[in-house]
Design goal:
The complex is a heterotrimer of chains A (326), B (340) and C (327). Chain A is of the alpha/beta class and 326 residues long. Chain A contains 11 helices and 7 strands. In chain A, the strands form 2 sheets. Chain A has a 5-stranded parallel sheet with strand order 1-2-3-7-6, sandwiched between helices. In chain A, α4 packs across α11 (286-309). Chain A is globular, with a radius of gyration of 19 Å. Chain B folds into 3 domains: 2-117, OB fold (Dihydrolipoamide Acetyltransferase, E2P); 141-185, no CATH class; 187-339, Chloramphenicol Acetyltransferase (2-Layer Sandwich), CATH 3.30.559.10. Chain B has 340 residues and is an alpha+beta fold. Chain B has helices at residues 90-94, 101-110, 141-149, 155-159, 171-185, 196-208, 215-231, 318-333, 335-339; strands at residues 2-6, 16-22, 29-30, 35-40, 45-49, 54-57, 65-68, 72-77, 187-194, 237-242, 247-252, 273-277, 294-301, 304-311. With 327 residues, chain C is an alpha/beta fold. Chain C folds into 2 domains: 3-182, Rossmann fold (3-Layer(aba) Sandwich); 196-323, Rossmann fold (3-Layer(aba) Sandwich), CATH 3.40.50. Helices cover 37% and strands 20% of the residues of chain C. Chain C has helices spanning 6-20, 44-48, 60-72, 87-104, 134-138, 151-163, 212-225, 243-253, 268-279, 302-305, 312-323, and strands at 3-5, 24-28, 53-55, 76-80, 114-119, 144-146, 168-173, 180-182, 196-199, 204-208, 230-234, 237-239, 256-263, 289-293. In chain C, strands 3-2-4-5-7-6-12 form a 7-stranded mixed sheet, sandwiched between helices. In chain C, strands 9-11-10-13-14 form a 5-stranded mixed sheet, with helices on both faces. In chain C, strands 1-8 form a two-stranded antiparallel ribbon. Chain C is globular. The chains are: A alpha/beta (326), B alpha+beta (340), C alpha/beta (327). Chains in contact: A-C, B-C. Chains A and C meet through α5 and α6 of A and α3 and α4 of C.
């Protein structure tokens, strides 16, 4: 039995989602460069296959927690452009009514428990969601997205320890994009990255994060096992972010060479390579793929314009939602 | 030659320092660098050292008190023969700080064992910690509210020698002081006027008018006009009390209206003069029921009108007061002239 | 009415709520068989099992974070933080995650969790096991803070906390677990934001929290012998704070002393004194007084530790000084 989603629709869906993420991010980047975006944001471009490969293996009720680099996860889990752009611009129609912004964007209806501005800060939340799932017998799994930088946070190890002790249905997905902010991962994480989780007795896997099919296949398998109570699991996904740490990190040569960036973009681009595969296997045609891309770009543009013109939250909202009603 | 030891400025924007303890006694020989006193700022406690050799004399600041920065607290002299005259501050005489037992225990836990040299004071005093800070009178908000409600001046307490800060319980004393002041300071003058012309005038204008014009309204109007001329005021409010029970109404610039149109106002406005119209009663005099600057009393005296002006000399000088009374008198004696 | 200990009252409250709602679970160190070092949770694991009374590793940030996630996804966890001093370990999960999730999500995600921890010195546990840190969390928008002052409050406030859809931190004075008080058998809740006036008076208002309420009561008795009539108020929760009761009382008496076992500087006493000064200023006949723990790390030595906390005697003396115009 093949675990790879091998029907045309699901392949096209994965293609679509990756293109959506890239289109969204490119618009977001433009907003920053045109000085139309309040605050900063963190681009996911280059890592699309990770979010899409994993989220396509999850159902809407499965939970994810995200990071400060969270637009990709948000789109991949089913969010729509309009509400996302509205949130980035702090408008009322945003997913969080403008109160969270890029770093705290959450889409509760689709199981996205939120991006987190604290590195590794959501490890507890994802693990707690798995505890709920187990306790309530809901059969759901949760995925904790984090970067190689979070491997420095104690919280991650504390929660992996407990997840392992209690066999919680959580998948720890480490997106190793080789840099934590402006520092190489080798300078921040000692020893073997996989051995960390293995030390807790957690089954750990490494996969090429730029290969959406590989990511998806692995995730499907682990999700099924987690639902049966064989979790937790740890996946190390090797990937690369094309842009800087945040949108303002433009002159990067002091920590990253232009050559390295060029190589990844040219040889390891997830969308380019998946396109090649789709065409080779005759799953789709250039026209169809281009048409999808074009449609998505238009959608993104329209969504941005919509958000730019959307209303700000009313001043009276500033002290609403501090407490939930009882 | 006496060298001044002052309370140093130890922090930014700091106006006082707390003298925690003296580490030397009056008359002690000190060497340059010896710690003389312990002072506490908002941040920490530190020792102030002797700037030169000599004898420590004229200690004028007390331990456990707040001293303004820059104030002289002692002197260092070369020899004990030429000690400059000590200037005792009023604060020293009138005030002492009672030592709080529990705070004391707490301090002992953290102190470095300087208890021998601490200056202890007897605990008999009524209002310790009192300081006179120039213009500002120190009083609790509660007392201020009580005093303001009755228009009483806190300065009276200070002038009478009571020590600040004043508190709510002092309201009784303040009231007494204020009453005494009012009585001694006010002046009054009385004139007797023939009222024949006034009575005739009143009858005539009423026959010509549709509305009833009372004597009160005319009096108020005349008084207002006289006030306008004498005091040069623009807005004249008059609190007019009349009838058997001296009911009060406020007239607003009555002289600026037609007599038939004058009626009381219900605007809240400042009142320039009070009028006690006793003509409906058998009384000829009434004083002391208000602290207003200008009070007119109108009464019947046999077949004449008696007008008394009672005034506060702080607000009106005698010449102006008499001018005012004369002017009112002229209008009442020859009312027709007013209409022209 | 029966009298039970503070510890028993907490136990009853939690057990009752766990029976009423399957979603209530407990996470913490030594909460199961051991029932915590203070034995407050004894018997719960026997009744509810290890799935609902969960012993965790010594990973405070970890299990607090897990509780936050569990609360966001359908459970109602009670986190047991063994000593209030460990708050510093969990500040990110409590103050950055739990406190802000509802707000940052525009009202879409809730965190119905209870953090149960303790406070109070004079147990000879030294500086890192004796702190009263409630002011730190009261300062954070999105957190509610309750401070039961006796077994009666302990039960009522705990039940309300478990039913509240927000993160609630409850501070119990660790020296009170064996103190008894009258606790009704019938179910009752104590609403947050409602202070209790234990003792009506007209000369001075004493506002006290947690174990300081007992000290204030003792002071009120000794003051009564000097014909000084003190009104004692227990806010019960400091966030939300029942300002109205406090302000009305001070407007009546014109004098106030606030007593709290947190450090005096930058804490609860400062906040309450400031509010009194804002809203009852013109009624005050003397500055509002504050008695807090001394601003030093808690010393180990018995000769020193007891000097650092406010006592009934100190309250008494301060009240006398105010009313005798020495302040």
């Amino acid at each position: 039995m093949s675990n790879i989603k091998d029907n045309r629709e699901s392949y096209l869906q994965m293609f679509r989602q990756m293109v959506r993420i890239r289109a969204f991010e490119e618009q977001a980047n433009q907003l920053y460069l045109a000085a139309k975006m309040p605050g900063l944001t963190h681009m996911y471009i280059g890592q699309e296959a990770v979010a899409v490969g994993i989220c396509e293996a999850l159902s809407s009720n499965d939970k994810i927690t995200s990071t400060h680099r969270g637009h990709g996860h948000c789109v991949a889990k089913g969010a729509n452009f309009k509400q996302m752009f509205c949130e980035l611009l702090g408008k009322e129609e945003g997913y969080c009514r403008g109160k969270g912004g890029s770093m705290h964007i959450a889409d509760q209806a689709n199981g996205n428990l939120g991006a987190n501005a604290i590195v590794g800060g959501s490890a507890g939340i994802a693990t707690g969601a798995a505890l709920s799932a187990k306790q309530l017998g809901s059969n759901e799994v949760s995925v904790c997205f984090f970067g190689d930088g979070a491997l420095g946070q104690g919280l991650l190890y504390e929660t992996m320890n407990m997840a392992a002790l209690w066999k919680l249905p959580v998948i720890y997905a480490c997106e190793n994009n080789l840099y934590g902010e402006y520092t190489k991962v080798e300078e921040m994480a000692a020893g073997n990255l996989l051995a960390r989780a293995e030390g807790f007795g957690i089954e750990s896997f490494e996969v090429d994060g730029q290969d959406v099919l590989a990511v998806n296949a692995l995730t499907q398998e682990l999700v099924e096992r987690a639902r049966k109570g064989h979790g937790p699991f740890f996946i190390l996904l090797n990937t690369y972010r094309y842009h800087g740490h945040h949108v303002g990190d433009i002159n990067r040569e002091y920590y990253r060479s232009k050559e390295e960036e060029t190589t990844w973009k040219r040889d390891r681009d997830p969308i380019t390579n998946f396109t090649k595969l789709l065409l080779e296997k005759k799953i789709s045609t250039t026209e169809e793929l281009k048409s999808i891309e074009h449609q998505i770009e238009t959608e993104a543009e329209e969504a941005v314009n919509y958000a730019l013109n959307a209303a700000w939250p009313d001043a009276s909202e500033v002290d609403m939602h501090v407490f939930a009603s009882n | 030659m006496a060298y001044e030891i002052i309370m140093p400025a130890l922090g930014m924007a700091q106006e006082t320092g707390r003298l925690v303890a003296w580490l030397k006694n009056e008359g002690d020989a000190v060497s340059k660098g010896d710690p003389l006193m312990e002072v506490e700022t908002d941040k920490s406690t530190m020792e102030v050292e002797a700037p030169k050799d000599g004898f420590l004399v004229n200690i004028t600041a007390l331990a456990n008190t707040d001293i303004p920065v820059g104030e002289v607290v002692a002197h260092i002299v070369d020899n004990l023969d030429d000690i400059p005259t000590k200037v005792m501050k009023k604060a020293d005489l009138a005030s002492e700080k009672t030592v709080i037992e529990s705070d004391e225990t707490q301090k002992q836990a953290t102190n470095k064992g300087n208890t021998d040299n601490k200056v202890r004071l007897p605990r008999t005093v009524k209002y310790p910690n009192s300081i006179i800070t120039g213009e500002k009178i120190l009083a609790s908000p509660k007392l201020r509210s009580l005093a303001a409600a009755e228009n009483l001046d806190l300065k009276n307490l200070r002038n009478a020698g009571y020590t600040e800060p004043f508190k709510a319980a002092d309201i009784a004393i303040l009231k007494q002081l204020s009453v005494r002041e009012n009585i001694s300071l006010r002046r009054n003058a009385t004139s007797l006027l023939d009222k024949t012309s006034f009575d005739m005038f009143l009858t005539e204008i009423n026959s010509a008018s549709q509305n009833l014009i009372s004597a009160s309204v005319v009096f108020a109007s005349f008084i207002s006009a006289s006030l306008r001329i004498t005091m040069n005021e623009v807005d004249i409010g008059i609190n007019y009390k009349s009838g058997n029970e001296l009911q009060s109404v406020i007239y607003n610039n009555p002289d600026k209206q037609q007599l038939g149109d004058v009626s009381p106002t219900d605007l809240e406005m400042p009142v320039l003069a009070e009028v006690n119209d006793l003509t409906f009663t058998d009384f000829i005099q009434l004083s002391g029921d208000t602290n207003s600057n200008i009070i007119f009393t109108i009464s019947n005296f046999t077949d004449q009108l008696m007008i008394t002006l009672d005034w506060d000399p702080n607000s009106l000088n005698q010449a102006d007061a008499l001018k005012l009374l004369l002017d009112v008198g002229k209008r009442i004696k020859s009312p027709l002239k007013q209409l022209l | 009415m029966r009298e039970i200990t503070f510890g028993a009252a907490v136990n009853e409250a939690i057990a009752e709520e766990m029976r009423l709602d399957d979603r209530v679970i407990i996470l913490g160190e030594d909460v199961a068989e051991a029932g915590t070092p203070f034995k407050v949770l004894s018997g719960l694991v026997e009744e509810f099992g290890t799935q609902r009374v969960v012993d965790t590793p010594i990973s405070e940030p970890g299990f607090t974070g897990i509780a936050v996630g569990a609360a966001m996804t359908g459970l109602r966890p009670i986190v047991d933080l063994m000593f209030g001093d460990f708050l510093f370990l969990i500040m990110d999960q409590l103050c950055n995650q739990a406190a802000k999730t509802h707000y940052m999500s525009g009202g879409k995600l809730n965190v119905p969790m209870v953090l149960r921890t303790n406070m109070g010195a004079t147990r000879r546990s030294a500086a890192q096991h004796s702190q009263s840190l409630h002011a730190l969390v009261a300062h954070i928008p999105g957190l509610k803070v309750a401070m039961p002052s006796s077994a009666y409050e302990a039960k009522g406030l705990m039940k309300t906390a478990i039913r509240d859809n927000n993160p609630v931190v409850i501070f119990e004075d660790k020296l009170m677990y064996n103190d008894k008080a009258k606790v009704p058998e019938e179910e009752y809740l104590i609403n947050f934001g409602e202070a209790e006036v234990l003792h009506s008076g007209k000369d001075i208002t004493l506002i006290a929290t947690s174990s300081m309420v007992q000290q204030a009561e003792l002071a009120a008795k000794s003051l009564a012998e000097k014909n000084i009539s003190a009104e004692v108020i227990d806010p019960r929760t400091i966030s939300p704070l029942d300002e109205t009761t406090i302000i009305n009382s001070v407007k009546k008496t014109s004098h106030a002393i606030v007593i709290d076992e947190g450090h005096k500087n930058f804490g609860i006493t400062a906040e309450i004194a400031a509010r009194i000064s804002e809203k009852a200023f013109y009624y005050l006949d003397a500055p509002v007084q504050r008695l807090g723990a001394m601003d030093v790390p808690v010393p180990f030595s018995p000769a020193l530790e007891d000097l650092t906390v406010p006592t009934a005697q100190q309250i008494h003396n301060r009240a006398v000084m105010i009313l005798e115009r020495k302040i």
